[in-house]
Design goal:
Largest sheet: 3 strands, antiparallel
Number of strands: 3
Order of helices and strands: HHHHHEEHHHHE
Distance between the termini: 41 Å
CATH superfamily of the largest domain: RNA polymerase sigma factor, region 2, helix turn helix motif
Strand order of the largest sheet: 1-2-3
Strand content: under 5%
CATH class of the largest domain: Mainly Alpha
Helix content: 55-70%
Radius of gyration: 19 Å
Structural class: mainly alpha
Low-confidence stretches: 15-21, 115-148, 223-232
Length: 232
Amino acid sequence: MFEAADHYARMREDPAAAPGEGHEPDDDEGLAARVTRGDQAAFMAIYDRYGDMLFGTALRFFHDRDAAADIVQETMLAVWRRIDQFDAAHGSMGAWMMGIARNRSIDRLRADARRPKITRPAADVGETDAVDALAWAGRPILIDDADEPAAEIDRRWVRALLASTMAEIRPEERTVLVLAYDHGLSQSEIAARLGLPIGTVKSRTRRALAALRDRLSNVPDLRPVAIGKDWR
């Protein structure tokens, strides 16, 4: 568990953070409603659910644990103060929080007046190689590189977010995406290589893309573009 956890661990010991009465849902919308009323237990549930993802992405972006921990702290503080701005109809809590973390990270990097140097994060082989062609909900992700260095910073964040998301996906589902978008194999070719029914390959692909879509849907610097339907 990373450094920012120390602060929230202390909150767990606070009697005020104990769950309240009732049986409200623990989905994103239910947790948000409880946090709006000052429920610290709901706030901790959000932290437990998304804290590692926040830290992993920020760490890949900065390559600095202290900076990553600061971004988690700032994002969680924003969640506590601005939870009324979350709208489940527009995306998941995780996507909303990632938007906050992205803005805080980029602001910090620019404030430090450090021109970003694109470096490959420590990740499993193939996790980030296909970022420029990765199909997002059936569409490739394209990033406009026209404006330097802003585009470099945005690109660096997208790579960090994608690597963190890929790391959370089940290995068997990640393998299917890597074979498809890094090695260019069709679903039938993947099925043959892995010795799986094509239906299994399709279901794994759908689950993996759903996870990516959830994390990336609210990233403003991505431009989804329709592609043909000949991948099968």
